[in-house]
Amino acid sequence: MESGSGPRDPSDGPQSPVDPPAAPPMAPPVPSSPESPAGPQSPSPPGYGGPVPPGGWQQPMPQGGGAAFALGPLAGWGSRAGALVLDALILLIPTVVLIAIVVGVALSSEVGGVVVGLISLLAFFVVTLLYAPVLMGRDGARNGQTFGKQIVGIRVARDNGTPMDIGQGVLREFVVKGLLFGTVGGFFFSIPTIVNFLWPLWDDQNRALHDMVVSTHVVQA
């Protein structure tokens, strides 16, 4: 039996029954990179789902390709109503002139007054029919604007990205707004006419019902 009075040799092993495991070496820190291995992150494309300017609406990708572009802030109900009143006042001028001509001719000749009256009504109908479509079909910055819309600084824009033309103006202003919601709506106590006029007040994109029918928005110019 060996005595344990002498000093312990370090080569005999550790004094504790189990040595603690050695800590693994620390890996050098990897600097963070703003770009992923697949390349820089591209921003979201504009259009539906992309960044939208405050208070504004973005046009979807035009059919047939091409870059989408923001149309700008939507026109409010007040500016739309103001443009409608201004256009009515502008059309009132030729109406007063035609009435004066009819009254003057009618006082001088009964037959002549009837003929001139019919011609005047036809002329007023043509002017009313073509006023908005012709003006809205202009090229450049005035596209989509009547004189009233031009004064208050708004314009009509098509959802598919193409400019307004005379045919689209006739469809929107005369057929849908005038005949459908105006004339036909008059047979229902003008309720469709009033609802169409007030609809932008609660629509999330400030559209009237005729805008939904023809796929247009009214935006600030």
Q: How is this structure best described in words?
A:
With 221 residues, this protein is mainly α. It has a domain of 151 residues. The chain is 45% helix and 8% strand. A two-stranded antiparallel ribbon has the order 1-2. Helix 1 runs antiparallel to helix 2, helix 2 crosses helix 4 and helix 4 crosses helix 5. It is elongated and about 110 Å long.
| Percent in strands | 5-15%
Strand order in the largest sheet:
1-2
Give the topology string: H per helix, E per strand.
Answer: EEHHHEHHHE
Mean pLDDT: 76
Rg of Cα set: 37 Å
The computed structural class is mainly alpha
Topology:
Blueprint: E1 56-58, E2 70-73, H1 77-108, H2 110-136, H3 147-152, E3 154-158, H4 166-186, H5 191-198, H6 209-214, E4 216-220
Antiparallel strand pairs: 1-2, 3-4
Key structural traits:
single chain, 221 residues, mainly alpha, two-stranded antiparallel ribbon, two-stranded antiparallel sheet
Summarize the structure.
The chain has 221 residues and is mainly alpha-helical. 45% of the residues lie in helices and 8% in strands.
